[in-house]
Design brief:
Structural class: alpha/beta
Strand order of the largest sheet: 7-8-9-6-5-4-3-2-1-10-11-12
CATH architecture: Alpha-Beta Barrel
Bound molecules: S-adenosylmethionine, iron/sulfur cluster
Number of domains: 1
Radius of gyration: 20 Å
Number of helices: 10
CATH class: Alpha Beta
Length: 346
Amino acid sequence: MPEGTLTQMPDRPDSAPSSGPLIDTFGRVASDLRISVTDRCNFRCTYCMPAEGLAWLPKNEILTFEELTRLLRVFVGLGVESIKVTGGEPTVRADLPTLVGMFRDVGPELDISLTTNGVLLESLAGPLARAGVDRATVSCDSLLQHRFAEMTRRDALEKVLRGLRAAEEAGLTPIKINCVVIGGTNDDEVVDFARWARETSYEVRFIEYMPLDAQHAWERRKVVAASTVLERIDAAFPLIAHGGNVEPATTYGFADGSPGRIGVIPSVTEPFCDSCNRMRLTAEGQFRNCLFALEETDLRGPMRAGATDGELVDLVRDAMWNKWSGHRIDHADFVQPARSMSMIGG
Ligand code: SAM
Ligand code: SF4
């Protein structure tokens, strides 16, 4: 178990409760679902996948819009309150606004956000907002054109910045930026990103580099601790803690009242497994109770074989019940999942 305070529920039954919230044996309630709508991507971020890409899933293995929507209805029935549409790169899935519209019909109150590399947002932000996306999180690891091109293997910074402006105009706000910090690559830019947050009012979230790359090239020495990022920014622009975090990101405002926010996601140095409320559905219908899970539960097979909603509910409840206490990235016995971030759905 990671350095946390989790303890298993006393007198817990052997099998998952058949009603009530979606819980695990540690009493954590799962209410946030990340839905991967494709494993494909139009970028090749060095920390995620190799230059030649990956062997994409054949089309018939990807869940259809109807299958995705049916599963979402099952999850909403189980208490899911927020979803993130992700991938791969979700915007390369054809007709994504139509799918979002179907999701919106399932959950008029659902919090629907999109995690994207932003390169197609210039044309898609408006249609996605109209279809029902509430907010966008856009990944951006460098504000320098040449470095952005090196890290994503695409010379697309300007296009992403235009996509961000389109997202703002479409009302996909508050906009969050995901920035993976890699020692010796882009860690010299954290103060520049903070300055950018102040200028744009974005929330820039610095993510610790995780062992989820397809190439298995992750090195612990390249992880820049969130605490280091915060110290550097605080020295330039003093920060104040922002209370009421409901996400893994710990967020800060600027002490001088400037707009914009800073967030850190310290998955490696300070895992937040104790309060995790997330689960994931991969593009081909595998349910994962943890980003780092070594096992998945197939929902597509049973669904295509005629399973009822009740049977799908039981599969999800059992899978959630068996969630471990947490990952052990910073321990010698850590085992990297077979599938990488873009295949799981980040
Ligand atoms: N393609 C979209 C994007 O890049 O925003 C969505 C999918 S991507 C897998 C989701 C998030 O995972 C991105 O913010 C990306 O930077 C992050 N990510 C990918 N590989 C990572 C790694 N090895 N460590 C930390 N974050 C990673
Ligand atoms: Fe694509 Fe996102 Fe992975 Fe970059 S991080 S290669 S944009 S899936």
